[in-house]
Specification:
The protein is mainly alpha-helical. The chain has a domain of 279 residues: Alpha/alpha barrel (Mitochondrial carrier fold), CATH 1.50.40. Helices cover 62% and strands 2% of the residues. The chain contains 29 helices and six strands. Strands 1-6 form a two-stranded antiparallel ribbon. Strands 2-3 form a two-stranded antiparallel ribbon. A two-stranded antiparallel sheet has the order 4-5. α13 crosses α14 and α15 crosses α16. The longest helix is centred in the middle third of the chain and has 60 residues. It is elongated. The relative contact order is 0.13. Belongs to the mitochondrial carrier (TC 2.A.29) family. Keywords: Calcium, Membrane, Mitochondrion, Mitochondrion inner membrane, Repeat, Transmembrane, Transmembrane helix, Transport. It comes from Exophiala dermatitidis (Black yeast-like fungus). Homodimer (via N-terminus).
């Protein structure tokens, strides 16, 4: 949680975030980072793994610690720690459409030149391969096509590297088959086939397939596995996504939701033009999916055991129940979180609004009494000006007299501010361009005016009670017999309809006030102070913008405020009475002149401008001191949204994680195509002079 000093400092002077850092990425960084001795927030390798691979997930396919190798890509300055700007760069990298291959490329691009040296590639590979892994021959004919011959090695560009990685798994399987086919008859033992597949593709296959790999020999009459079987199996692995699509379409068309081998091949012919599946590939698919279904007619659940790498027995049996429960729990948690967050904002807004109203309340009282002064003759005027009014209130009623009627103001300010801000934001969002965030000026005026109109529901009863309490002090001085009335007495005496006396004048004041204030305030923040998604303004800037915007809004609507005050104040004996808005305006003009419409105008400016400033300042500081969860270390909801579920989420089960984090996992899968031990072996501090792996 931010300290008081930090909260006040950031609230006053504002803060600028890294330009490319998204909200989700920032919250994730704050959740998992720690503060160093120099005061800088950073993530070490363990924090980084927590950010992209939440501990509570299932990592039986790809071990959680293996995600740590991606730390070397994010740690651009090789300090063994990642700053917020480095995390932003990594997050931006994950958002690229080809992020998986580019992340893998940067791991081998030791010098950061955009080229991979063949020597560095082989050395990094050797540093990360498992001790018992099947060796790979970089001098093979296939490898030399990409990196050159043994004596003529050349550097690889990013496109060349990506294309090589695309075909690498197939070459590894081919070399491994030759290694085990010692008598060169084109056959290997089932156990040897299992060793090859576990070593080269175990991270992509379900437990069901891995446990039954030796049974592949049963699709033919012999007891061994041919190279054709191996290649067909490898093609099935490569085309999992297309298989998924074909199977989904075929089962939807089936009356019982099941298909056989013929249905599959027919649907494949309809959906593909050139990538037709061979009979052997179809046999392999139906063999592994139908081990428990002798009939040969298979459902989506049967195919999930092959296509979904995360498939486990418990998942297969309880998948539907689990998914439904997850959705219900997720929606309930989101609703509860939104409800609590709204209550939190409403609470802070209420406190801040009450604080702002309290700070300027004496000015509001002076303004009201000046506006209610109806005599034009010097000898009959109770107050000469605003300063004289304040002085006489203190002298006759004491300092507490400046706060007459403050309680209903504090009670009513919360719903008033809440509805005004909510309606303004809602209408603005409806007319704001989602791409450019631009909004036409007429829409800004409409949003502000709508907000002002809606707030009258709360404002008018609040105003009439407040005003009558504010002028009560001077009535008591004129007549000792006049009883002091409470707010509740005024409410009971007026009734529901009476509380909305002068509502037309209140509308006439609040609609133009908000229509002027909100557009002016937003343009000042953006055009004068440069507010943007990356630049957060401090209280000083917000206070200045609010004060400037409040000046024209307050002064230009003063005539409406004067009329409203005259209509809502209980007329004294001998005072002029008014029969509505038009009658009031006509009598003021006739008896007091044009200047009377601007009585209390300066006091209104002095009240309205700082009131918004105090309110916004208090809200900013309270938000820092009392955040909804700890932004740096809790941020539970936002952090969960950013991280999602990184495992499982492939094949027939839809991935739940956000796209950047799925790509982080997929980038690791590309590296595991080289060797399934990538990330498990501790990389040395340096690579013969290279700074790439230094921490």
């Amino acid at each position: 949680m931010a300290t008081v000093t930090e909260a006040v400092k950031e609230s006053l002077i504002g803060a600028t975030q890294p330009e490319s850092l998204s909200t989700e990425a920032r919250l994730s960084f704050l959740k998992h980072s720690r503060r160093g001795d120099d005061g800088e927030l950073y993530m070490n390798e363990e924090d980084f793994i927590d950010a992209i691979a939440p501990p509570e997930e299932d990592y039986h396919k790809i071990k959680r610690e293996q995600y740590g190798i991606l730390f070397n890509v994010a740690d651009r300055h090789k300090r063994g720690r990642i700053s917020m700007s480095e995390w932003a760069a990594f997050d931006n990298l994950l958002a690229k459409p080809d992020a998986e291959y580019e992340i893998a490329f940067r791991l081998f691009d030791v010098d950061g030149t955009g080229l991979i040296k063949s020597e560095a590639f082989q050395k990094i590979y050797e540093q990360n391969r498992g001790r018992d892994s099947i060796p790979f021959d970089f001098n093979s004919e296939w490898a030399t096509l990409y990196i050159g011959g043994k004596n003529k090695r050349h550097e690889m560009t990013y496109p060349q590297f990506a294309q090589m990685m695309r075909g690498l798994q197939g070459e590894r399987i081919r070399q491994a088959f030759h290694l085990f086919d010692k008598d060169k008859d084109g056959y290997i033992e089932p156990e040897e086939f299992e060793r090859i597949i576990r070593d080269t593709a175990g991270h992509k296959l379900s437990d069901h397939v891995l446990e039954n790999l030796p049974t592949l020999c049963n699709i033919s009459t012999g007891s061994k596995i041919s190279y054709a079987n191996v290649r067909a199996f490898q093609n099935v692995i490569r085309e999992m996504d297309l298989l998924d699509l074909i199977i989904r379409n075929a089962t939807k068309k089936s009356s019982d939701g099941r298909i056989d081998r013929t249905d599959f091949l027919n649907e494949a012919a309809r959906l593909t033009r050139f990538s037709l599946y061979t009979p052997m590939e179809a046999d392999i698919l139906f063999h592994f999916a139908g081990l428990d279904v002798p009939s040969g007619r298979l459902s989506l659940d049967d195919f999930a055991k092959v296509l979904d790498a995360s498939w486990q027995t418990s998942v297969a049996k309880l998948g539907a129940i689990s998914d439904t429960a997850d959705r219900v729990v997720s929606k309930s948690q989101q609703f509860l979180h939104s409800l609590l967050e709204s209550a939190h904002h409403f609470g802070l807004g209420s406190i801040a609004g009450a604080f702002g109203a309290f700070m300027v309340y004496p000015i509001d009282l002076v303004k009201t009494r000046m506006q209610n002064q109806r005599s034009v003759l010097p000898g009959e005027r109770l107050y000469e000006n605003s300063i004289d009014c304040a002085r006489k209130v203190i002298r006759n009623e004491g300092f507490r007299g400046l706060y007459s009627g403050v309680l209903p103001q504090l009670v009513g300010v919360a719903p008033e501010k809440a509805i005004k801000l909510t309606v303004n934001d809602l209408v603005r969002s409806r007319f704001t361009d989602k791409q450019t965030h631009a909004i036409p000026i007429w829409a800004e005026l409409l949003a502000g005016g709508s907000a002002g109109a809606c707030q009258v529901v709360f404002t008018n009863p609040l105003e009439i009670v407040k005003i009558r309490l504010q002028v009560q002090g001077e009535l008591l001085k004129k007549s000792d017999a006049a009883p002091r009335r409470s707010a509740m007495w005024i409410v009971r005496n007026l009734g529901i309809l009476g509380l909305y006396k002068g509502a037309s004048a209140c509308l006439l004041r609040d609609v133009p006030f908000s229509a002027i204030y909100f557009p002016t305030y937003n343009h000042l923040k953006r055009d004068m102070f440069g507010e943007s998604p990356q630049k957060k303004l401090g209280v000083i800037q917000l206070l200045t913008a609010g004060a400037i915007a409040g000046m024209p809004a307050a002064y230009l609507t003063t005539p409406c405020d004067v009329i409203k005050t005259r209509l809502q104040v209980e007329a004294r004996k001998g005072d002029v009475t008014y029969n509505g808005l038009t009658d009031c305006a006509r009598k003021i003009w006739k008896q007091e002149g044009f200047r009377a419409f601007f009585k209390g105008g300066p006091a209104r400016i002095l009240r309205s401008s700082p009131q918004f400033g105090f309110t916004l300042a208090a809200y900013e500081v309270l938000s820092k001191l009392l955040p909804f969860g700890d932004d740096e270390h809790d941020a539970h909801h936002a952090g969960a949204t950013a991280a999602g579920k990184t495992e499982p989420g492939v094949g027939l089960r839809e991935a739940k994680a956000p796209l950047p984090y799925l790509r982080s996992r997929n980038a690791l899968k590309i590296l595991l195509d080289l060797d399934n031990s990538f990330g498990r072996v501790k990389v040395p501090a340096s690579l013969e002079g290279s700074r790439f792996f230094s921490k």
